[in-house]
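User: Here's a protein and a ligand (adenosine-5'-triphosphate). What would the complex look like?
Assistant: Let me lay out the input and then the predicted complex.
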Amino acid sequence: MFAVEIAHLTKVYGQGETKVVAIADASFQVVPGELIAILGPSGSGKTTLLTSIGLINEPSQGQVVIDGQLLADDGWLPGVDLKRVRREKLGFIFQHHNLIPFLTALENVMVALEINGHSRAAAKARALELLAALNLSRRPHNYPAALSGGEAQRVAIARALANRPKVILADEPTAALDTENGKNVMAMLKQIAVENRSAVLVVTHDQRMVEGFDRIFEVRDGRIVKESKGWKVEGLAAAGA
Amino acid sequence: MNLALRDIRHHRGRFVLTSIGLGLLLGVVISMGGIYRGLVADAVAILQSTGADLWVVQQNTNGPFAESSRIQEDLRYRIAAVPGVAQAAPLSFQSVQIERRGKPFRFFLIGYDYRPGLGLGGPPALIAGRPIAQKHYQMVVSQAMNMPLGDTIHLGLHDYTVVGITGKLVSSSGDPVAFVTLADAQDIQFKQENNAIRNDRARLAAWVAARPGLGAGQERLLKASLAGLTESTHTVNTVVARLAPGAELGRVQAVIGRWNHLRALSTEEQVEILTKGMIEKARMQLGMFRVILLVISGVIISLIIYTSTLDKIRVIATLKLIGSQNRVIVAMILQQSLLMGLIAYFTGYVLVRLTHKNFPRRIELVPLDLQVLFVIVLVICTVSSLVGIRKAMRVDPAEALGG
Ligand SMILES: Nc1ncnc2c1ncn2[C@@H]1O[C@H](COP(=O)(O)OP(=O)(O)OP(=O)(O)O)[C@@H](O)[C@H]1O
Ligand SMILES: [Mg+2]
């Protein structure tokens, strides 16, 4: 089964004069454990693609399937609890960490677990474990304002990983970081893809950051113009793509 | 994890200050309710301390408190003779204003039959001194008169000496109460200065002289009876009565009411007259102010909650993005609103509790009123949070992505 499958995905903003085709007829599949880069210039539709897959941007046409569940077919499928799919199967990482400013690092991770039905104690245990794994055990009680950019981004990654999502969507996760921290984050995402068997889709416009990715999609004016492979992962063949 | 509390913890100064500000408003609302209850309590204080079952007053009046009423003192004997009446006694009431320590001082003077076993409506339990023991020139004052035992006060033509002090008792307009004997009260009320009496006599003589048609006998008769009327001091404001055990109130009222110049009011009717009639306007006025203040509180809460929601748009978008249920977001906003209301309510409550004794008029804090207000405050908080909640529900999770 694919972790992510999109078919003929199209997103049109506005109508008439102001009509913008942000994504045009995009199709691809991603298997669990695959690390995907989406490259492209500003305004090419990368974020639109990611948010459509992330179930926060309703596609105009085409299908979105997450973990085998059809969620959009020319618009959202009626009766689907998109929030539930988001909290159970998706993890989000953004350019700016988007941590909740009035929660500590630990609480920011815990909140993702608690809204997914974990008890407070279980959430705390898992959050501490994640922070430790991301080398953050020293400041679990710091507020985001008291964390460095790299630390904050790692807390955001911990939050995204909290519910062991099938798919991780990262929009320019390194843009606000220096090269060193940026490389670290990318290395972590790669590790997550391999260890957690999550499909990881990373939007970036920095070519240098995509070293070691499994596949790279290049987007221009809403179209996927090029797909290049890094090295083939076993899963791709096994899924029978 | 409670998001509402975490958020507040993050900027508690702003939250607490606003809540305390609202608390001052609610304090005013609480004290206004207390003032109204105080008005009611004051209005019926004398009524209750008198302990009578029946108040006989002049016909067609709502006397003796709400309207003036004058009846003859000796009616007490006829009333006492009505079957079912155990005891009847006259009472006179007057408001007196004197100059004391350079300032006008108002009090309410009650004249009663001081003889043990014969009177009704005298001073309630004394806290110092003794009851009035002679027909003239003695006085029992309530505490609020601020007069020590042995102090004297000049009223009408004579000095009166304080022999006893009773607890807190006020008239329906909140003035402290003092007691003298009925005879003294009538003296103070009717005995004018000699010059004034001479003037009146001269006016009467002139009036009679200007009517030459009167015979000498008629003239004498007229003069005597007019003088008798104008100088009569044997009137009182009411005769109160106590019923014998088992007597039927309605029947006794009917008997007295049939005498065509009297009206017998039950204590309940008096309460009705005093509370419904006399302080209804004050009640509406205070009620209106309370509503206005509550509306203002609601508007303030809405504004605060709305702006704090605006401050949290990104947080809310992020929560939605990571899949928070709406109830998590609604709870965060609603709980803050309710907490603000709770802090405000208790601030107001404590404030009034601590200060209500120092108000010039009585503030009576009735538990039921406080409970009702509490519920109203919670409802206002809930309603006020709706604008914020509506805004939050419309936040697009994609807003979390913006740079
Ligand atoms: N909400 C929107 N309403 C209308 N047009 C939009 C909206 N969001 C994006 N667009 C348009 O869609 C196109 C693709 O935008 P998108 O944000 O996906 O680009 P991007 O590749 O992520 O760019 P960047 O690298 O600058 O983040 C752009 O032309 C943009 O102006
Ligand atoms: Mg973008």
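Summary: Chain B touches chain A at residues 1, 3, 6-7, 9-11, 314-315, 318-325, 328, 396-398, 400-401, 403 (CB under 8 Å).
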